[in-house]
Amino acid sequence: MKDVLKGKNVLIGVTASIAAYKSALLVREFVKAGANVKVIMTKASKEFITPLTLSTLSKNPVHSKFSTGEEGVWNSHVDLGIWADFMIVAPVTANTLGKMANGLADNLLVATYLSGRCPIYFAPAMDLDMYKHPTTNENVRKLKSFGDIFIESNFGELASGLFGEGRMAEPVEIVDFISKHLSQDLALQGKKVLITAGPTYEAIDPVRYIGNHSSGKMGFELAAECSLQGAEVTLITGPTSQKIDGLNVRRVDVTSAEEMFNAVHDDFSNVDIGIFSAAVADYKPKFVATEKIKKVDSSMNIELEPTDDILASVGEIKKDQFLVGFALETENELDNAKGKLQRKNLDFIVLNSLKDSGAGFKHDTNKITIVDSAGKIANFDLKTKKEVAADIVAAIITRL
Ligand code: CTP
User: Is the same domain home to 257 and 339?
Assistant: First the structure.
């Protein structure tokens, strides 16, 4: 895939964020992939990483001023913009984002951005509150509306010590994303995908719940794969320790089946594809105690009532959406899966059998069978969940 970068002219814009230290790795990754790299730095970014580091790694002088230093010789932002096959501004600060969105060309980087005719990618890095600020959202929206390509930030520890979204995507992720994008094999470009993942917790009282062992890993791998294929992903997840390092993924955290139901219905009418990998509780306590239930000497019963079946509910209202469900079975696997496929009005169902060792909740691997609405059955080998996600997404793409 990275072959696509061979011989490409890549212009990397670096702005004044602590994440600028990652620019060295980004330059290195592109050079390793055979690209020709030139770097433009803003003046303030030199406080974070030296031009010498980036010029040595890129094997080209670093550009940061409108003139070269020689009298009467300008550093042509127009030439740089024309030279580039694509430009990636990483890290882009809230400040430069604002300048790009509003055409404030008071430095070489933004002037080159405005004169570039090539695809422009941008990967923000900022503190979580700046990242969430409506101004930032609006500027990202504006750049996207100009056709620029957003490489979403990751969740994690930030320079401030706070945890949240705003960490620049890792250099390898950026290079992967751009390679796929350029390979034109972004089969889900322009598609909106909704994915459910993880378990749900059904409250018994303020401190106890009914849950299950789902790790959420399968759903998170699916979200990462869909986003790498260019989709805009909404990942609705129950409680999990998983982190999403996929790009262009909007994560919605929920706890109970009811919250997941509502979050799914908020979005479902806008999506093209729904993948329902969550292990939703089938039952919940009929009454949730408002105070912690005290221990008594006798046995106790908790009355349960069914939760709403989220997948079946969207199966009933679906129009053109492509719908994928999961079935975890221990017996009569194929018949049960086919029954769910029909009952829930799915395009295909992914069957995991707990009889297969290495499959199911607690493993990093999975062994699946895909049964589609035309009756076609495809068996897959035991693979990592990342590979399984790629198989599932490929199966969706061939049927779209
Ligand atoms: N599902 C859902 N909402 C529920 C229950 C299940 O969206 N309340 C979805 C799951 O995410 C999965 C599929 O439905 O994609 C199959 O779930 P499963 O629990 O196996 O199916 P059930 O019809 O509940 O059958 P059973 O539990 O009897 O096997």
Answer: yes
Query: pTM for this one?
Result: 0.66
For residue 145, give every residue at least 6 positions away whose Cβ sits within 8 Å of its Cβ, in sequence order, or none.
Answer: none
Cα 373 to averaged position of ligand 1 atoms, centre (Å)? 17
* CA dist., res. 236 & res. 195, Å (int): 6
Instruction: Please tell me if the CB atom of residue 328 comes closer than 6 angstroms to any atom of ligand 1.
Output: yes
For residue range 258-279, what is the model confidence (pLDDT) as tens digits?
A: 999 999 999 999 999 999 999 9
Of the residues 184, 208, 225, the one at which a domain ends? 184
Atom of ligand 1 nearest to the CA of 257: 8
Tell me: do 252 and 317 sit in the same domain.
yes
Q: What is the pLDDT of residues 352-379, one digit of tens each?
A: 877 777 776 667 888 999 999 999 999 9
Domain containing 16 equals 2-184
Q: What is the CATH number of the domain that holds 266?
A: 3.40.50.10300
Kindly indicate the confidence band of residue 150, based on its pLDDT and cuts at 50, 70 and 90.
Answer: very high
64-93 mean pLDDT: 83
Q: Which of 222, 275, 280, 350 to mutate to test the pocket of ligand 1 (most atoms within 8 A of CB)?
A: 280
Q: Which of 9, 95, 212, 262 is catalytic?
A: 212
Q: Is 212 a catalytic residue?
A: yes
DSSP string for 218-243: HHHHHHHHHHHTT-EEEEEE-S----
